[in-house]
């Protein structure tokens, strides 16, 4: 019965979402609040039904209900409890359910938060949110039916993809989808602004927290994805410019651009058109990303063989873009700027350049990702561009962005005087140059690494300069140091939250630079008792052992790692043999450190356990990437916290 | 918009176009099948060669990390050499994509092997189970 109940609930939810979307729009058009209220009830109904479906699906997984095809395909009797839960979104159909559920949650939050504070925009926001939700419900009903019945019911399922048996699989998709779906809200507000003609700044100030939150979750999703790739896939890296990664990275780039350019609109009433375009682009890229990763169009260049889901996403993407462009054209006259750029040397210019570089990076990633399709269509040859292309083109852009990260927050608005520049940048530039010299003397050979590290130092010093100056001012007012610092962070939490986020990005940059410039690896075959040397580490092969786990067999190697001064560490990389898989799966073992990680992969081995081939890597500074993620989290929390200063000002002098 | 900004924009666009152009020409990798490569292999050019790993062609010498095999598309067979252990999904009779270049000595020098996941589902075979169990048994004995 479960499959029929679930499928029925989804159909009803689809009907409700379409109904709600339509009546909210009519309500917005005619001003009849009863209609908007009816749409609200529809939103609540959709949320309830999708939640029920999610629980139903989870229940089917927990109770091994193999009458549901999706359950049978993604679990078996040996799958542990924990992974049966994460298997709910482990494959295409379930991930769409999760996506739709988050969207329904967001829609409900929009109802609760913005019902009264965004009166004119609200009906249209609701209409767009429900419209997008209706699309996902349609996908769940037609091309990716999650509750499809399987007859005859098999005695056991196929099992979960073993690579997904990892704790990262609970956090990574959730964070990523929270980010993807989160951008639907600013998008809905942008469309509402265009429809109502209220293209001023209200939609931007109202959605500031939404944008930051969505951006944060997307960042977190990318970082956790990197961590999963690093410790599960066993190739020793965290980012491969794979189409799937690029798909999530593109909206992050445009989202980052949007996050910055809205500040110019808030302050200078400029870039209205640009901001609308950016948020539309970000939303479109989340759809494009799903299309890219779920349709198989890039992995196998011959498109659309894997079902019709790709066509659905592509069509929806087309509809969204055409509608958005039509709205932009319709409101063209209202989108002119009220402010003007005064000088090339100003904060506006720095932000503008930041946006240009981010969009250039987006274009590069887009171009590189679809290049195989382009070249086949245009020249008839299948050509791809790999990691070298992406690195070569993007690294200069990213270095420019880091430089701007130091310049932007400190340079004056409108027109920076020489005095302003000297006061803010003399020390950072001097220390940055000194740092470059020191790194060179310390033996850093790669110019890119020196440049990247020196720029990181430069930006860190600009943050320090700003913080010191502001703290001193408060100390002079008679405050104590902790109070001064605390007051500063809390009262100007937007500014300093931003600084902390920048610091997080700098720390990630440090990790990326270090791992790219200084990581080393070796591959070798050892007999029992033999050892391999790499970067001061000596790895001895002590033997192989076999064991039987709940749903697989495991061959584990034992290796003793010595590095002279610290006590020995034992690493146990393994190969796992799943009955449902044709090939074994490597299980990496590693020891993480602030300076470097020792990373060991078991390759081939002799059947009698006398000999094993290993890949040994010493990866430098990689841990800082994950630490940067933690700092990013703290900064975001600070940035979205309620603003004390504004709240106090609003109370003191009601406008 | 002031001319200064316009000039700046044009400069950035030109720089980006150049970087992309240079990037593409330097890192373009050509997808070919063994038949396509067999006709006109250009040594030094980067290829991505996809085919089936021929049965009986795989030789793996663990001590020297030398892996040799032949990739075939049913018509032409190309000899491939790689330094390093075969990846998990690599096996005779299965699809594989190798990245590398054509060596003047008459073989394909692979820098990367991307073995392919077979999409179709196979029920857990008793024979393969027995194979794994046999391996587990032989592995367990000497360690005791």
Q: Which helices and strands appear, and what pairs or packs with what?
A:
The complex is a heterodimer of chains A (655) and B (144).
Chain A: H1 2-30, H2 33-62, H3 69-74, H4 81-86, H5 92-114, H6 122-141, H7 168-182, H8 184-196, H9 202-206, H10 208-231, H11 243-268, H12 272-295, H13 309-330, H14 347-379, E1 383-385, H15 387-407, H16 418-441, H17 447-476, H18 481-491, H19 493-518, E2 520-527, E3 531-534, E4 537-548, E5 553-562, E6 569-571, E7 574-577, E8 585-587, E9 589-591, E10 596-605, E11 611-620, H20 623-640, H21 644-652
Antiparallel strand pairs in A: 2-11, 3-4, 4-5, 5-6, 5-7, 7-8, 9-10, 10-11
Chain B: H1 3-27, E1 28-32, H2 34-39, E2 46-53, E3 59-61, E4 66-72, E5 77-83, E6 95-103, E7 107-115, H3 126-143
Parallel strand pairs in B: 1-2, 5-7
Antiparallel strand pairs in B: 2-4, 2-6, 3-4, 4-5, 6-7
Please sum up the structure shown.
The complex is a heterodimer of chains A (655) and B (144). Chain A contains 21 helices and 11 strands.
Polypeptide structure, described:
The complex is a heterodimer of chains A (655) and B (144). Chain A has 21 helices and eleven strands. With 655 residues, chain A is α+β, with helices and mostly antiparallel strands. Chain A folds into four domains: 154 residues; 194 residues, no CATH class; 102 residues, no CATH class; 102 residues, Tick-borne Encephalitis virus Glycoprotein, domain 1. In chain A, strands 3, 4, 5, 6, 7 and 8 form a six-stranded antiparallel β-sheet that branches. Chain A has a four-stranded antiparallel β-sheet with strand order 2-11-10-9. In chain A, helix 1 runs antiparallel to helix 6, helix 5 packs antiparallel against helix 6 and helix 11 runs antiparallel to helix 14. Chain B is α+β, with helices and mostly antiparallel strands. Chain B has a five-stranded mixed barrel with strand order 2-4-5-7-6. About 7% of the residues of chain B have low confidence. Classes of the chains: A alpha+beta (655), B alpha+beta (144). At the A-B interface, helix 14, strand 1, helix 15, strand 2 and strand 4 of A face helix 1, strand 1 and helix 3 of B.
